[in-house]
Amino acid sequence: MKNKIPPPIILLVSGALMWLISRSTFAFTVTVPYALVFALSLAVAGLVVAAAAIREFRRAQTTVNPLQPDAASALVDSGIFLRSRNPMYLGLLLVLSGWAVWLQSLGAAVVLVVFWLLITELQIKPEETALQKNFGEPYADYCRRVRRWI
What we know:
Blueprint: H1 7-22, H2 35-59, H3 87-103, H4 106-135, H5 137-145
């Protein structure tokens, strides 16, 4: 796989960029009612989704390492993976969305789109290629049944 940047690093860089933007003239500050509650709800939801994905990977006794999808020993299509092919990345996006709400900055929220595009292009698509090669038709069938994000 080409990508060698771990998704949590992309998350941290995105979060730092969001913070910098929120402190700049490009912040476009908005007031979000109950920002703390809304932000925490999104972040906790993201952590729960990601934890559910990790649990399914461990149950299937396969790799959780996003940089080595070709090392997957099982196609995981149970639990949270019935709703999303990429719940770990969905979880990261939800956490980052909570951060955007907390920052109350439309400028910072634009980074959510950049994160989504980067994860899709740099991580998900190469993973899909590796998984298709590894699991063939069962993976193709899974892709037809379950959407990439939600």
